[in-house]
Design goal:
The protein has one domain. It contains 1 helix and 2 strands. The protein has a two-stranded antiparallel sheet with strand order 1-2. The protein starts with 5 loop residues before the first helix and ends in a 22-residue tail after the last strand. This is Putative NAD(P)H oxidoreductase.
Amino acid sequence: MDRLNDTRFRTVGDELRERMRMLQMTSPIPYRKQNDGEYQIPTMELKPGLETPGAVRFALYAAEPKLR
């Protein structure tokens, strides 16, 4: 069963092509490092107090940018 009509298919295709064109200029997601002291071993749970206030789900695992 097709879930996209022709118009939506073209739109999604255009969006994907644009995303691919911009990939080299897109910054990577700053995930927290596994062995950098932010996770409890062996459960790999984020240590309490490291989360950004109000962060849930995916945002919990993104690291704060480090100032240089």
